[in-house]
Amino acid sequence: MSEQSPFQPPDSEAQRALEKERQLPLTGWQQEVDKGLEYGLEAAESINDRTISTFSRGELPHYAGINTFMKAPYLEDVNQVGNYDVAIVGVPHDSGTTYRPGTRFGPQGIRRISALYTPYNFELGVDLREQITLCDVGDIFTIPANNEKSFDQISKGVAHVFKSGAFPIILGGDHSIGFPTVRAVCRHLGDKKVGIIHFDRHADTQETDLDERMHTCPWFHATNMANAPAKNLVQMGIGGWQVPRPGVKVCRERATNILTVTDICEMGLDAAADFAIERATDGTDCVWISFDIDCIDAGFVPGTGWPEPGGLLPREALYLLKKIVQNTTVCGIEVVEVSPPYDVSDMTSLMATRVICDTMAHLVVSGQLPRREKPTYIHEEAQVVDQPWS
Ligand SMILES: [Mn+2]
């Protein structure tokens, strides 16, 4: 007997989603319940649902518990990070901001609202709890008021996670961290190369800003490294009144691949994603995604340092992300520029959470996660990839 409603279009996404859910196991959920009952004690006698424990120990209730990302286990011993498919890494750094600060609270804000999410996505038919292992390694020890020392800490920490084989997901932090994160990846690429797909309203390509390597500067320094060629830097959504001219000059000189929001809308989302994929993967071995939350229209993401009207709609950005993640070899992602002190109702942090969860789901759908073996682009031995800077 068919369970399909006569009012449902027969080949709708919704209909397929209903079917996909049937295939998902409940093993991870059962383990979580068992652990909750063991560690958190069985519930009071008046509670009819005997999967509930006395102390909240898992997903439920969503408003309770200790806020790691999606309540993933907090991995205190980072030496063990290679035992997980995915590692969440907080980078609470805002010394690279040139206007509104506050992104040092980005990791906390994203973790807090991530408690709202279940591990299951309807349309994609993915249940992260059942399909991958996720940990939260906490935050990098950044040094306030010193970008360069913070960059060294970030590169060392992210390189450790990257080399372990766990897929790194970075919670920023301002966009200055784009340089040390990519440097971390490059340290363990040997002679392999990485393409960068950069979602942003801002070019972020100038050498210095206010005499330092600020959040307007990551791609100048990242694309100085031989493992991260400028010809494989794709910049999606750039435009408006906040793009410094020195950065534009560098984009021109290095021939980075830029699409404005109008370009993306006129060519269509599929063609725009294809353009990004083609340019970022041409001669490279993997792709780093740098997602500045301000690529989305300022009306949806008020909690950011340099909000700019006229950006992508959330569903446009999420569609581009879907197509790109599912069709490239992604080696890591950072979501930057979430500034909770300027946020309203956690909506900017929620958008960041959505980008991260969608990325994990697309990696599952495309077979990149769980990792059965360490990706071949990871080179065990660390190499020097950039010049001292002062
Ligand atoms: Mn930006």
Automatic annotation (TrEMBL):
InterPro entries: Ureohydrolase, Ureohydrolase_dom_sf, Ureohydrolase_Mn_BS. Keywords: Hydrolase, Metal-binding. The keyword Hydrolase applies. Residues 1-25 are annotated as: Disordered. Residues 13-23 have a biased composition (Basic and acidic residues). PROSITE patterns: ARGINASE_1 (PS01053), ARGINASE_2 (PS51409). GO terms for molecular function: agmatinase activity; metal ion binding. PANTHER family: ARGINASE/AGMATINASE, GUANIDINO ACID HYDROLASE, MITOCHONDRIAL. This is Agmatinase family protein. Pfam families: Arginase (PF00491). Belongs to the arginase family. Agmatinase subfamily. Coiled coil: none annotated. GO terms for biological process: putrescine biosynthetic process from arginine, via agmatine.
